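Pasting as-is:
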Amino acid sequence: MDLFDVVKFDSNGLVTAVVQDDASGEVLMVAYMNREALEQTLKTGRVTFWSRSRREMWVKGLTSGHTQTLKSIAVDCDGDALLVRVDQVGGACHEGYRTCFFRRAGADRQLEITGERLFDPKQVYRK
């Protein structure tokens, strides 16, 4: 069965990609892929997404050097989400953290920063 016969892209041509560190199992980020990004990821082994805000293809780490090398892709039972397992170099989060899930909510709904910042995004992205 071909991957593209199973993946269900939404009305915008996108599928959710949950990115997980292959070695630790840690969830690093959630992003979106269109067909071209998924094809490029499979072809090159460098994880590529579709940036909804910039409306362009985005190779993870091209600007920051914090790259993701593809280890495997799994498709959920409905075909509407991908689990992309990667070898992560540096931080996955554009805020400078290893994972985008660096904040935890307590019972009082207050967020606590639980991750360690690995890099200064102002230095990396020149913002």
